[in-house]
Amino acid sequence: MKFTNKTDIFFDLDHTLWDFERNSALTFEKIFNSHHIQVSLTEFLKHYVPVNMKYWALYREDKIDQATLRYKRLKEVFDLVPFQVSDADIHLISEEYIKYLPTFNHLFDGAIEALDYLKPKYNLHIITNGFQEVQNGKLKNAKIEHYFTTVTNSEMAGVKKPNPKIFEFALQLAKAKKSNSLMVGDSLEADMEGAKNIGLDALFFNETKTEEPHSFPQIYHLSELKNIL
């Protein structure tokens, strides 16, 4: 597998370059310790990971807003653990989570090496559904913002992946041609199908080694980008 005639590479951020689950766990650990929340972090995260994915899917489909996402994902998990916590405390934890999340900056293994390899050869960009304030903090604190010519988020575009409009917005912002561009991401629905639906080539970063059937070319480690670009 080799992509040719590419000039612009678009990356998703969370779960693709930025190790969301690791950084998220460290954020909750900090919050639980500072507020003396007597909950097993392992038990909490066992529920939080799928619950968070569920509410992000609803958010992506415009079935809930930001505030609902931030509140309900925590409310549901504390109910499942179970641990009694007031609505006021849930809102406080939610605010602190958003505040502290960008301060943890673990990237996936091979991310910097891949970006160093790609930067001289391609224009690099970000397309993310994440909140602008949080995503900008992640890029800055992880010291990778200088790699990217443009950063498109769903708040700027007014829609979320897989909506074709966010990809069109990103291409226009980057002044990139669809035929010369590639989308790299971890979500089969948001990144892969979203890109495919506008005729944009897509590469699946299958770091979790999911066995879900799909027809997209894939890599399991970011170092593999050197072999195909």
TrEMBL record:
The keyword Zinc-finger does not apply. The keyword Hydrolase applies. GO terms for molecular function: 5'-nucleotidase activity. Pfam families: Hydrolase. InterPro entries: HAD-like_sf, HAD-SF_hydro_IA, HAD-SF_hydro_IA_YjjG/PynA, HAD_sf, PGP-like_dom2, Pyrimidine_5'-ntase_YjjG. Keywords: Hydrolase. NCBIfam families: HAD-SF-IA-v1, YjjG_YfnB. This is Putative hydrolase of the HAD superfamily. It comes from Flavobacterium cauense R2A-7.
